[in-house]
Write a structure and sequence with these properties.
homotrimer, 137 residues, alpha+beta, Jelly Rolls, five-stranded antiparallel beta sheet, 3 helices
Chain lengths: 137, 137, 137
């Protein structure tokens, strides 16, 4: 069995930002020399997500608007009594999830034709990490 | 380490449809000869989901109604400017997620008494795939 | 390859309750003697979730209020015609998901500084299980 663990650092310019990371993950899989296995891509923070969907600017704007409706930025979250103002970012993390598991087949990401991997930052402008772990043979 | 990768094809009659696939996944696990491991069941499209819940017709109707409330089919998604009309299907995919990882124990799916695996199609009537990958020993 | 499978039992005092389980999962990983791998933590019931987020009481109350808004407890679910009254618990399971996969690195959970693992019960006061499966080397 082979394994490789790498950490990606993000420090987004904006508070909320979506970053396309498919090619970064593909390069880590190539480096791992795993031909059959899984690669886990998992945010290490509770106010960010990792998801798979379409690389299309209109849709990305739709996702932001939709998320804001389901988990709005607002005052009034009890969590803010701890000194934070990011209650919405925690809820957005729960809806979008913090991780995906991508199959590795014949040494490459086994994704469908339109599937791309994204890091979604809900409380940025500071350094945050994603763990990428490849396991297989 | 053993691995087996198979692809399931779907071409649903209706635009939106839920298909029960537990027994199909169980047969792939049996074929893999893996006794301890994981099986990943992951939609390869960004307008479909794979989830685990109850095989009960009333609940399945409840899920549709609920999803339609949270991510409605409508005009007005920016994504539609790219020529598509399936913005809601992308958002339904994000809520329901495109994948589950099922533990394999003693050669079988290690599911609870009521857990069943489903493919949920949000933009069907065309050929789409799910990847099933078993990894273990 | 090494693997270890354990089952956690829950029987919560309240119908809806969130239980912090990070240290329980850490102990299972230690027992498995896996240094590089994955640990899957997955509810075996369709009215409960396993998630990763913050151990902060205010936020946990925010999560309950938010979930109740998105998937309310109410009469009128078609699922209730089967004799149940827990339609909301099924939908809460779908939003929050029933599982997380935690990377194991150097023999320990590879979590970020604020990430904690939780079991969320949506229809408790009876015995329910979570499967914990460690796989690696």
């Amino acid at each position: 069995m082979k394994s490789l663990t790498e950490y990606l650092w993000f420090d987004t310019e904006k508070k909320k930002e979506i970053v396309h990371i498919t090619e970064t993950i593909r390069a880590i899989v190539a480096k791992s020399d795993v031909s059959e296995g899984f690669v886990l891509v998992s945010a290490m923070h509770i106010t960010a997500a990792v998801y798979v969907n379409d690389l299309e600017d209109g849709l990305i704007e739709d996702i932001w608007e939709w998320l804001e409706g389901l988990a709005p930025y607002k005052s009034g979250y009890r969590h803010h009594m701890s000194g934070e103002d990011n209650g919405d970012a925690h809820l957005k993390n729960l809806i979008m999830h913090h991780q995906v598991l991508v199959p590795v087949t014949k040494g490459d990401l086994d994704l469908g034709p339109w599937q791309r991997i994204f890091y979604a930052e809900f409380d940025g402008q500071r350094r945050k990490r994603v763990v990428v772990k490849v396991l297989g043979e």
